[in-house]
Amino acid sequence: MRLFQGKGRTALMGVIGMLALLVAACGNSSSSTTTGNNGGNYDFNYNFEQPSGNSSGTIIFGEYQAPGTLNPYLFGAEVEAKNVNLLWDSCLVQLPNLTLGPQGFQPDQCNKVPDESADGKTTTLHLDPNAKWSDGQPITANDYVFGYDILTDPNVLGSPFPYNYMTSFKPIDQYTIKETWSVPFAAYELFIPSPLPAHIYPKAFSASGKYSSAEVQNLVNADNFNTKFAADNGPYTLVSFSPDTIVYQKNPNFHSNFFHGPFANKIIFKSTGDVNTSIEDFKTGGLDQVDDFKLSDVASFAGIPQNEQVTSPLLSYDFLGFNQRPQALNAQDPNNPTHKSVFTNAMFRKAIFEAINVCAGIVTILGDPQGCNDKSVYATEFTANPAYDFDPSFTPTPYNLTQAKADLQAAGFPGCKYSNGKTILLNLSTTNGNPTRLSYLALVGNALSQLGCKFSTTTYVAVPNYFGAIAQGGILATGKFDISLHGFVNSTDPSGNDSLFDPAYIPGAKNNPAGIGGNEDGINDPKITQLIQQATQALDFNQRKQDYSEVQREVIQNWYGLPLYLDPNITLVSPSLHNYKLNPGSVGNTWNIADWWSSANRTSSI
Length: 606
Fold this sequence. Notes:
Elements: E1 58-63, H1 78-87, E2 92-94, E3 105-107, E4 115-116, E5 122-126, H2 141-152, E6 166-173, E7 176-181, H3 213-219, E8 236-241, E9 245-250, E10 266-271, H4 275-283, E11 289-291, E12 309-312, E13 316-322, H5 329-332, H6 346-355, H7 358-364, H8 401-410, E14 425-431, H9 435-451, E15 454-460, H10 462-466, H11 475-478, E16 483-489, H12 526-537, H13 541-557, E17 561-566, E18 569-573, E19 577-578, E20 597-598
Parallel strand pairs: 1-10, 1-11, 14-15, 14-16
Antiparallel strand pairs: 2-3, 4-5, 5-7, 6-7, 8-9, 9-10, 11-18, 12-18, 13-16, 13-17, 19-20
């Protein structure tokens, strides 16, 4: 499973930006045989199809996992994101075609895309008075402020980026909100808070606008804030919740300036418990849609027509991180005479980069005979083809073991030894329970051995041992690793990924005191920092695109980390399900579930 950096309806982009690593690194992946039928040629443009015939029956979708929360501010896993989309909506919707940039944002429960001042420091939100909660109460500015207060409450979420740049978020009147920024902030559309029904939680947010952090802290674990809601603003409302079956019904008060539905009378989510059951349930007609598959699962699709197997690129990848921080295990090694991480040396990073045969890994570990020719799997940057900062012309430093040995000597570490003749020992770390990653660590270990290095391998429970905060002793946060291997799901805009490379987000820094989901490798490159600052404040889209593409180029050309493979978005969908459209971002494939309708005329007794 995966964590999500943001919600495609632009409701939650800042909520879990610091957590996008976690569940991306928890999934149980294994070897594969094929990449699906669409690969990198998937068309992300969205054209609504009007319902015909009886479209008001029941739709059943699912996957192998079960959600723990349906709250738009507390979710983290993919299975939770896809269910959140039924219940919650927001000011804007972002289309799945990410190359559209600002043009990809459309008014949803706002009257229009928010006004932005010429200097990029003031944003004005215009809420649609026709938008209501499912109980019929109007959605007002107070509901958005309630969400913003939770989002920025250091005792609850305390999301730093980009709210550290926001100086105020205040109502002008019942349906108008003004945001002010200390610096121009270009990606404002992506970080509009999601509204929450303040009238349902008067102790947490009073009618006069007073927010209670203590009350929200009490609510965080309460059923009526996680799996039972007296009101929501999505296309469906909750009928019943259990870990394996969630039942929704049409929200008669739903209003959107983009979506056309809801059309189904009832939608049911089923957790199948395992991937094979998901596939069999789809084959027998028990599911209209099911996803969250790995490449290895495609072999089990035998007998399913090709037009029901849909694959697209996804902003998700696994990569190696090279720890430059003084906490790195090699820096703490008494045999290291410099007491600095060897990865602070660019030529050392280059040598490791060159010694690892990424293309061979795709063939032998992922089981994809196309290797690096499969552009839906081969990762050349810390981004993927759907994103506008992706540069298809960029070719990273190729595998070359001979050159790697020469570069190791040029770095001052001939034969992978320190100046005192002691052999360098590097620790390789990842999450446990993931055969693919263990195979990749073996590939990396073999490369290190060929260079003359020693290595050890350690696997950890994902949460909290690997991804936990500094206070929890999380390995990435505390820096007690040399080379890490985990996944990352990018935001639908590059600005949401700045924390990976910005020194302000090194664990323990002011912007990342807890140490979660930031710059764990300690990258501190003035040019990259400057490019990020330029891109964040660039109001011209083409300039932002150029700056963020250059960030990617600088990261790879300086060998700050090594992307290993992309994670395609693989789904099974019945031909009777209409308006289904994959989404490459972290919102999940139910981003437009309000528009789904079925021609199967399915009924359910649930």
